[in-house]
Structures are given as C-alpha cells and as structure tokens.
Design a protein that fits this description.
Number of strands: 6
Shape: globular
Structural class: alpha/beta
CATH superfamily of the largest domain: HAD superfamily/HAD-like
Strand content: 5-15%
Number of helices: 11
CATH class of the largest domain: Alpha Beta
Oligomer: single chain
CATH architecture of the largest domain: 3-Layer(aba) Sandwich
Largest sheet: 6 strands, parallel
Strand order of the largest sheet: 3-2-1-4-5-6
CATH topology of the largest domain: Rossmann fold
Length: 226
C-alpha cells in the first residue's frame, strides 16, 4: 500500500530544468566546458549543487590541466539565473498535488535544489502552500541525489515507511535515489528538458513506470492501491 507521494521539484512540479540547462551550458561553454544537451541531462540533472560543482571542477581539471577559476561557481549560477523570469509550473501540477493528497493523504517535495531556491520556485509558481510544511531540500542531508538520503528524510518527516512511499522523478539521478531508498519510483517526462527516448532512460535507471504528463499521473492514481 502506498501511503505517501513524494514529488521532485525541478522538472516535475516546475519547468525549471530546461531554463537552467540553457543558461548553465552557455556559461560553461564560455569556460571551455562543452556538453551536448542529452549528455548534460543524463549526467547532471537531479544532482545537488555540491556534487554538481565537484563534478564540473573535475571535468575542468581533466580538460584544462588545472583548477577552475575562483569565480567558477558564481559564473555558472549567473547563467542558471539568467532565464529565471521564465519559470512556470508544469501544466497540471497543482491538480496533481491535490489528487495525490486525496489518494494517499500524505504529500511532500524532496528536491536537490538549495533550500532558498526551492522555496522561491514553489512560491513563484503558486505551489508552496499546497505542499507546506513537507518541503525538503537536500541541504538538510549529508548526501544529495543519487544517494537516497533526502527521500529517507522526507519519509521520516511524514511518518511513513520508505516501502510505502511513491516517488515521482524526472532524472536518472533522482530515480536512482528513489530506488536506493526502497521506494516505488515513477518516472516523469512532462518537463521541457525531456528529449525523445527519455522514458527508456528512466526505466533503465530503475523507474517502475513512466508518466508522460500529469493527466497520466492522475489517471494512474485511481488504481494505485486497488
């Protein structure tokens, strides 16, 4: 029986990944780090910033033979923020939160976003009040996704065993984290960053099913515990 549904935020509730990727790749290109879009999504989407920047700095050392400049992180973050005014909730997100709450009673967000970014994105898209107080950033745990820590934290706060939680995730890193947490994981491909064939990548990463949008997610809830 599923007793709680835990949503990722970026690329699931808010269409932020496509905006962030565009700005980050431009900034990284100016620093001599070039990634094609699919490789970038596969490697980095869903990571907490600590691991994200550690990995980028390693790439920089490999390519350039030295350390990244002191303002490396700030330049990438400037790129990420460049398109922030275009942020919108993914179509059907509010209805999906309401349907999930009605279906199982407990809903939460477990995100790789830094806490202040997470709060801001949910407030700007009108979703924060639908999820509070169960809004959890990986800032709260030692290891971000693909480690399971943030999902275990959310489950503890909800008072629901991990095996009775359903996770909705849009990234390979997030799917891996949910599977490692011992939860049921549904992939989600309704975000603007999801390219052709992305569903297969999520299944390969361990997702038990994939929902292409929130209409499909809501329809699946009707048979979740039947």
């Amino acid at each position: 029986m599923i007793e709680a549904i835990i949503f990722d935020c970026d690329g699931v509730l808010v269409d932020s990944e496509v905006l962030a990727i565009r700005g980050e790749r431009t900034a990284l290109g100016a620093l001599g780090l070039h990634y094609d879009p699919q490789t970038y999504v596969d490697r980095f989407v869903g990571m907490h910033d600590r691991l994200f920047f550690d990995t980028l700095r390693q790439d920089y050392r490999t390519i350039h033979g030295g350390e990244a400049p002191a303002d490396f992180e700030e330049k990438v973050l400037d790129g990420r923020r460049k398109h922030k005014d275009g942020l919108e909730a993914i179509s059907g997100a509010a209805a999906a939160i309401a349907a999930a709450s009605e279906a199982v009673g407990n809903v939460a967000v477990a995100s790789s976003s830094r806490a202040h970014f997470l709060t801001s994105k949910l407030e700007r898209t009108g979703l924060h009040a639908l999820l509070a107080p169960h809004i959890y950033s990986a800032d709260l745990v030692e290891h971000g996704k693909p480690a399971p820590d943030i999902f275990h934290h959310a489950a503890r706060q909800l008072g629901v065993p991990a095996e009775r939680c359903l996770v909705l995730e849009d990234s390979k890193n997030g799917v891996a984290a949910g599977v490692a947490a011992g939860m049921t994981v549904w992939g989600f491909t309704g975000g603007g960053h999801c390219f052709a064939g992305y569903s297969k990548k999520l299944i390969t990463a361990g997702a038990h099913a994939v929902k292409e949008d929130f209409a499909a997610f809501i329809a699946a809830l009707e048979t979740l515990n039947s």
